[in-house]
Amino acid sequence: MVKNQSIIEKLGFEATDKVVIFHIDDIGFSHASNVAAFECLDFGVASCGSIITPASWFLEVASIYKNNRKYDLGVHLTLTCEYDLYRWRALSSVDPKTGLMDSENSLWRTSEEAIANVTADAAEIELRSQIQLALDNGIDITHIDSHMGTLANPKFIESYFKLAQEFEIPGLFPRLTRKELIAMGLKDYINIYEKMLSIIKAEGFPLIDHMIIDTGGEQPDKIEYFCKRIAEIEPGLTHFLFHPAKMSSELSVITPESANWRNQDYEAFTNSRIRMYAEELDLKVIGYRELRNFLRGH
Asked: Does residue 2 belong to any structural domain of this protein?
């Protein structure tokens, strides 16, 4: 293997290739999201997704996976539950001293509240429990990522990486420049992030070159919208996420604000136009399983 090769070159691609992970977030949070997620995965543009294991419909995911282990699934690690009336709780503890729970004995609704209240030690124990629950239910997990981006905070990021090391799985670790960190409001943490990124790289964990993650929201034509976003993909490794869920009364009650656009995501990624457009652009679609297998092999 040539020194200083990019991750996509190490995987056998050319440096100029556009390699994409089409990733489904929030699997397991509802029956509607499960139906949509597996239809999208079966359709073939989406390549993988991550599961919220403390959520109510996790066991349905485990049951589907047991009947077809081809699916590339990770754990969508969470210290938050943002919904008004539909809540999930911590798996590891009900002790108020952990700071894991709000006044409704559920995980916090916002990242800011979780960061302010959850202790770093309690967070690590809880996140490990969420990974272990997936493993205990027979899911051969391929990666971890962070619900609502909470684990990107310096308070939790070391535990996030520690868990990736412990379970020998890649995390969603983006390659961020100083300019990008400042744009994300993380100016005060630049030194911490640069140190963490250097450690992650030195340990051989793959870094994501580009992220397209701001895909929520309704659009007049979401298929056209996604085609435009797909056209933005650059050479290197891109994490492209979306949140499909099939319209239902359940979905409308859980999340009235996002039900329509989640259904739009589902309809778009089961539409042949997007698949054909990805093929026209010669995108190289992979999942996190390829990254995990590379990591464990090297």
From this structure: no
Give the phi and the psi of residue 178 in degrees, each rounded to 5: -60, -40
* pLDDT digits 0-9 by tens, 68-106: 999 999 999 999 999 999 999 999 999 999 999 999 999
Considering its fold, how many domains does the chain have in total? 1
Q: What is this structure's pTM?
A: 0.96
Task: Name residue 182's amino acid.
Answer: I
CATH number of the domain residue 207 falls in: 3.20.20.370
Residue 27 β-bridge partners: 51
Cβ(57)–Cβ(28) below 8 Å:
yes
pLDDT one-digit tens code per residue, 180-230: 888 877 788 888 888 988 999 999 999 999 999 999 999 999 999 999 999
Element (H, E) at 285: strand 284-285
3-state secondary structure (DSSP) of residue 288:
helix
Does residue 173 lie in a domain region? yes
Q: Is residue 1 part of a domain?
A: no
Range of the domain at 132: 7-297
